[in-house]
Amino acid sequence: MTTSPETAPAPAGIPDLPDPRSARCPFDPSPQMRGLAAFGPVFRVRNWDGKTPWVVTSHAEQKALLSDNRLSVDFAAPGFPSPIARHGGGEGESEVHGEAAQDGDNHGVTDLSFVGMDDPEHARLRRMVSGVFTIKRVEAMRPAVQELVDGFIDRLLDGPKPVDLVQAFSLPIPSLVISELLGVPYGDHEFFQINSKTLVSLTATPAERHSAHTALVDYLDQLVGERLGNPGEDVLSRLAAQVRAGELTRREVAVMGVLLLLGGHETTANMITLGILLLLQHPRQAARVRDAEDPEVVVGAVEELLRFLTIAHLGRRRTALEDIEIAGQTIRKGEGVIMLGELANRDPSVFPDPDRLDITRDARQHQAFGAGTHHCIGQPLARMELQVIYPALLRRIPTLRLATELDQVPFKFDAVIYGAHELHVTW
Amino acid sequence: MKITVDEVKCCGAGQCVLIAPEVFDQRDEDGIVILLDAAPAAEQHAAVREAASVCPAAAIHLGEEA
C-alpha cells in the first residue's frame, strides 16, 4: 500500500513536514520553517501523510495552546498529525504504512502511557509517579549523581583517547541514574538502549518500532511481576503497589516504565552530548561555566543550552476538539496542530537576538520541556544531571576538544530526539 | 497581592518552589503545588511574579487586592 484515500495532494505552496535542520547550521531550527514564521505564527503545512495540519511557531501562542484543554494529545484521534509513521524506504518515496494511515488507530505511534492521554486520565496516571520528581527528591539525588559523574570522568582520564563521548559518558550516566531510580538492572543497558534508540528513530520501520516497544514492555512487565511479590524502594515497586491496589494494570505499569526509562536516558544523553559540543564551539562561555563559583551561573547556562538546542524537535502534536481562533486563523475541530518548540525558543519577542548563545541571558521561559499539563515529568532530574555534568567535565578536563571537524559529527537529523550518534573528543 | 493556584492545571514542575520557596511548596505524594502564603509580604512580590511568569502550566494567578 502506497497511499490512503485521505492523502490527497495538498494545495501548492504548502511547505512539507518533516522539515529537517540544515546540515550547515546543525544547532539551528529548519531554515524553511523559520522563514515562514516571519509571515505569521500560525500556518498550514503538509505532513508526510498528506494531511495539512497547522503549525504554530510563536512562543505565546504555543504556550497558550499547550495549556488549552480544547486540544487533545490522543494519538488515535482522526486528525492527529503523526510524526513518525513513515517507512525508512527509498529516497523520495512517500510510502505510507497501511495501518498507520487509517484513522482511529495509533497512527504508528507507540503506546507511551499518559503522554498520549488527555486529562483527567492523564493526570490520574501521571500523578501516581510525579512525586518521584519533586525538587526535594531530585536535590537529594544530587550528591550521588556528582559521585557517579566523577567516576566516569576518572575512567575517561585513565582510558584511551580520542574517545566517543556518547558511549563513554553521555549515554551511560543518565541510563544508570534512571535505571537505579526505576529499579531496572543496569546490566541490561545494551538491551534497553538499543531498543530505545529504535523507538525514537525516524528511519526504523513501523514493524521495527513495534518490535522494540514490545520487547521493552515485556521486559518491564517481568520486572513489575518481580516487584509485586517482593517490593523495594524503587519506582517500579511504587507502581506495583498501585497494581495490588487495583488502580493500575500490570501492563499499564510496564508501559509507564518504558516511558520513564526511555525519557530518562535518551533525551538527557543527547542534551549532554550536544551541550558539550556547543560549549566547545563557544570557548569563552565554556570557560565561564568551568570557572563559575556561583551555582546560579551554571543553572542559567543549562537553561540557555536547553533553549538553544531544543532537542525535542519534531513538534508537540495535538488535535483540535473544537474550533479554535488563534492569531487570526481558525483551527477547525478535528484538525491537527503542531507546536514547534525549537521556534518558540527562538522567538525574538521573548529572547532578544535569539540565535546568539548567551549563557548569561534569562532563558527560563523556554519551552524545551513543553508547557501545560504534559510538561516533561522528568525535567527536574534532567536539569540537575546537566547542572552537575557540564561544569564537572569542563573542570576536570579543561583541554577537552573535538577530535574531528564539526562537519564530521553525525547529527541525529533522523531521530525524534535530536542529538549526535557519536562525538569523538580528546584532550 | 492575592495568590491563587490551580491544582488541576499544575504539572508539578516545581519552578515556583525554586524561585519563591517561602510562598510555594510541593506535595510529597505527587509534586502538585502547595500555596504556603496566599498574601505574602511585599518583599516576596517580585519572586512571586517571576514564579507565575515562569510556571510552565500557567497555574499561578495573581490578584492585586490585599
TrEMBL record, chain A:
Keywords: Heme, Iron, Metal-binding, Monooxygenase, Oxidoreductase
Cited InterPro entries: Cyt_P450, Cyt_P450_B, Cyt_P450_CS, Cyt_P450_sf
Region annotated Disordered, chain positions: 1-30
Entry's family note: Belongs to the cytochrome P450 family.
Name of this protein: Cytochrome
Keyword hit for Hydrolase: no
GO molecular function terms noted in the UniProt entry: heme binding; iron ion binding; monooxygenase activity; oxidoreductase activity, acting on paired donors, with incorporation or reduction of molecular oxygen
One Pfam assignment: p450
SUPFAM superfamilies per the UniProt record, alphabetical: Cytochrome P450
Keyword Repressor: no
UniProtKB/TrEMBL annotation, chain B:
Domain 4Fe-4S ferredoxin-type: 1-29
InterPro entries assigned: 3Fe4S_ferredoxin, 4Fe4S_Fe-S-bd, Fe-S_cluster_ET
Coiled coil: none
Keyword Iron-sulfur assigned: yes
Cofactor(s) required for function per UniProt: [3Fe-4S] cluster
Entry keyword set: 3Fe-4S, Electron transport, Iron, Iron-sulfur, Metal-binding, Transport
Example of a GO MF term: 3 iron, 4 sulfur cluster binding
Residues making up the signal peptide according to the UniProt record: none
Keyword Iron-sulfur: yes
Function in brief: Ferredoxins are iron-sulfur proteins that transfer electrons in a wide variety of metabolic reactions.
Protein name: Ferredoxin
Organism of derivation: Streptomyces monashensis
